[in-house]
Amino acid sequence: MFFNFFKKSSSTEVEQTKPLTQNYDDVLKIANFFKGETGVTFDKQTSILKNKVTTFCKHREICSFGELLKSLKQDSVLKQALIDALTTNETFFYREFKQIAQLVDIVKKGGQKVEILCAPSATGEEPYSIAIALLEAGVRAESFKIFGIDINQDAISRAKDGVYKERNVRNLSKEQLSKYFKEENALFILNDSVKSRVEFRVQNIFEPSFKNIGSFDYIFCRNMLIYFDKETKLKAKEILQSLRKNKNQEIFFGHADLF
Ligand SMILES: C[S@@+](CC[C@H](N)C(=O)[O-])C[C@H]1O[C@@H](n2cnc3c(N)ncnc32)[C@H](O)[C@@H]1O
User: Fold this and answer.
1) d(CA 195, CA 135)
2) Could you report the per-residue pLDDT of 109-121, keeping only the tens digit for each?
């Protein structure tokens, strides 16, 4: 009796904190909304999506995916929070370095001022890697400008801070670390000499405003198309191609971003 009494009261307590109408079943509607907004598809990962969005809703006391959808259409702050929660920002310095080395060679040979776009930049490691590689090769800081964009607001704010954990800088040499970073409490703080070469902006590549960002000598678009379906990849490629100054210049896509 004593035991049953406790069992009952604890389950009642849990039920009392739960809203009555919780319904996190119709995950496909959320998947379609998210794909329509960002291009990112969860077609083969609906259970991962369901878990992430359920947690997102519970933290905000949103009782169903239906309620979430309704709020997302009216609340741009909530929409941005969902984008920040569901996009994958994994990146690190000198990732797939071969292409960066290729770019450095071209820029050195050209000897002219260049503008480079990194779309997406995530937390900044890729555009900063390009800046470091160009400086290491003796290219003058005034001879290049890099623009980093990403749909994830939190990632862009971290990119602007330029503070990294050891695992993010693992591919850099000790010399590069001491030349371009200040180490403090196991964090690596990027110097202004590199930060000043990169400008960041929160931007969705499918928003019409992206087409007004300007035109670029070189474009890096690595490890984003892997999250898109075939049709969306082609759409993204077409948009990026329209931003090239020289229509013969190939875009640097990642090795996994197959069409
Ligand atoms: C894995 S990171 C790639 C970062 C870096 N380019 C690299 O290769 O290390 C993928 C990034 O794509 C961004 N992304 C996804 N959809 C986007 C969109 N429609 N517009 C802009 N960025 C997007 C995500 O926010 C995420 O930061």
Assistant:
1) 12
2) 998 999 999 999 9
